[in-house]
């Protein structure tokens, strides 16, 4: 089961910009230093994963959050608890089967 957090890129941006100085040139220099470290690859991977998740949600047509997508076809909106969303989906699909 994949969990896509649509706010992940923004949270990562906030995490990276925390403690940066107000001077843009100094902040840029500090970010260049950070990007030169071996740990930066992990951060770059986190960015890539977060934007892949956003792209997948867009492909699936997610219109609002919270949303739980089941089997790439069914979407349950408004339920942040995945287990509860799965229960709701089973109930709804059971109702469809009886029609």
UniProtKB/TrEMBL annotation:
InterPro entries: Integr_conj_element_PFL4709. It comes from the Bacteria. NCBIfam families: conj_TIGR03757. This is TIGR03757 family integrating conjugative element protein. It comes from Halomonas alkalicola.
